[in-house]
Amino acid sequence: MPVLSRAVLVAAALAVAPVAVAQPVLPGSGGAPAPSGAAPGGALTKITPQQLAQYYSGLTLNGQPIQTSIKTFDDGTSVVVLPLWGSKLYSGITLQVCEKDGSGCHWLEFFANLGKQGSVDANWINAFNRNFLGAKAYTLASGELVFALDMSLFPGVSPSEIGWYTSFFKHVVDDSFKFKPQ
Fold this sequence. Notes:
9 strands
C-alpha cells in the first residue's frame, strides 16, 4: 500500500476516533509549587540514591524543607520518594542504569502515581501523550494512572538541571489536571 494511502487511512481513523473528555484529579485539593533552592555545582554523570536525597534536602516546598526518603527493593533498585504533592500521591525518582559496584546510576525516572482514575481512559492518555512532550502518561496493570519523565545523566548534567527537570515534571503533571483533549 503506498505511503500516501496509509497516511490517509490513519488520518481518517483518527478523525472518527472517540474524543476523550475526562481528566485526572489530584487526590485532595490543590497542588504544591515546584521546589526551589540552591544546589551545589559540578557536572554529574552518575548519582547514588543518597546523593540525590541530599540534593533535595537543600530545597524547599511551600517554604518547608523537602522531606525525602529512600526505598530500596529486593532487586537492588532504589526510589527516592519526593513528595512534590505532599502526601496526596506517591511520587519520586527511580534510579536506573546503575553501576554494579554501587557507585551510582546514570538514569533518573521521575514518576507520579495518581492512583485509579475512573474518568481517565485510553483516549485521554493517548491525547495527553500526543500533546505533551517529555513526560508520558500510562496505566499500571492495577489501573493506576502514572506520569513519568526520564532524565539521562550522560554526558554530564549540573545539579541545577536536575532541579529544572523536577520543576518541568511537576508543571506537566499539574497541567494534566486541566487537560481536556480536543
